[in-house]
Design brief:
Blueprint: E1 6-11, E2 16-21, E3 27-33, H1 44-57, E4 64-67, E5 82-83, H2 88-93, E6 96-97, E7 105-107, E8 111-114, E9 120-123, H3 126-136, E10 144-149, E11 154-160, E12 163-170, H4 172-182, H5 194-203, H6 210-214, H7 216-222, H8 231-250, E13 259-263, H9 265-277, E14 282-286, H10 287-303
Parallel strand pairs: 1-4, 4-7, 5-8, 10-13, 13-14
Antiparallel strand pairs: 1-2, 2-3, 6-7, 8-9, 10-11, 11-12
Helix pairs in contact: 3-10, 4-8, 5-8, 8-9
């Protein structure tokens, strides 16, 4: 491990993860900050970055690269979307410059794709993890790949020869949160009941008639004697399985086409259960490592321009 050469940040809606990397892209130090852009006032992101993030690493003179919602209208500055199909080179060419103690600093653009019903689909942050995963091994940049990034707004991405050609977003995580807090399904119980989760996987069917299937989360309790504490786990299984069954079809993905799960280990493990039940081959990869690799790869290309 060498000395710090780059400050890399994944700055999202709820928190900020930051790393210093050496000249080879290896992590030197890592810190997290309770500075999600949803909590910041307009213009505050730049001030907090200079006052808190850079000094925490002693990184005032280092170049910096940032991805995520910090590049949205909630963040530091709007980094315009790059349109699909897009690869590492195109993203690096679109890095948005910002000022930070006079050092080289750039924000990764989000990506826009053809969406559903005539509306575009968009992402910010997931594209950096995807590009990092592709950059980690050259063989991943050939052929066709299906990538699922679980999360509040899960992304299903279709990659061909190293370029993101199209994606679809599923608001599964947000729907789970809203139903669990503001509906007849609300509960304070943790979603850690695996048998109930598995029942939810079965109840999802092919992901059709979701509004009707969701009511089973209530009827199984009030009419069938199931434990109310099992509702969050059942609901989680139902929503994830409905997504896994229905969303890939929107991208023209075949029923048993292999899937790469990229993201948080706990969430990926839940999606893994849903995919396994459908007989879909899949592998899981760490999203944080991919984010670091993506930020370093984009910096390496961007700084050379």
């Amino acid at each position: 491990m060498g000395k710090p050469a780059l400050l890399a940040c994944d700055w999202g809606t709820t928190n900020l993860r930051a790393w210093t990397l050496d000249a080879d892209g290896q992590v030197v130090a890592h810190k997290e900050f309770d500075l999600g852009v949803s909590r910041l006032a307009p213009g505050e992101a730049a001030k907090r970055f200079e006052a808190e993030v850079q000094p925490a690493f002693g990184a005032q003179g280092l170049p910096a690269i940032l991805c995520g919602m910090v590049g949205s209208n909630l963040g530091w500055t709007v980094a315009p979307y790059a349109d699909c199909p897009v690869g590492l080179d195109e993203l690096a060419a679109c890095l948005a410059p910002v000022e930070a103690h006079g050092a080289w600093a750039r924000i990764v653009p989000g990506v826009r794709s053809q969406g559903l019903a005539g509306a575009p689909d968009v992402m910010r942050g997931e594209e950096t993890q995807l590009m990092g995963w592709l950059a980690e091994h050259p063989d991943r940049r050939s052929g066709r790949r299906v990538i699922c990034h679980p999360g509040t707004h899960a992304k299903w991405m279709l990659v061909e020869d190293g370029r993101l050609v199209r994606f679809v977003t599923a608001m599964t995580g947000e729907l789970f949160a809203v139903l669990g807090k503001h509906s007849v399904l609300k509960s304070e119980a943790p979603a850690n009941d695996i048998p109930a989760f598995e029942m939810g996987l079965v109840a999802a069917g092919e992901g059709d008639a979701l509004a009707a299937r969701l009511f089973t989360a209530r009827s199984r309790v009030v009419g069938g004697g199931a434990s109310a504490e099992s509702t969050p786990s059942y609901l989680s299984g139902l929503l994830i399985a409905a997504e896994v069954a229905a969303v890939p079809r929107l991208l023209g993905i075949a029923a048993h086409e292999p899937v790469v799960l990229l993201g948080d280990e706990r969430l990926c493990s839940l999606y893994s259960r849903a995919l396994a039940r459908r007989g879909v081959a899949h592998e899981t990869f760490d999203g944080e490592a991919a984010a670091v690799a993506g930020l370093f790869a984009l910096y390496s290309l961007g700084a050379a321009r």
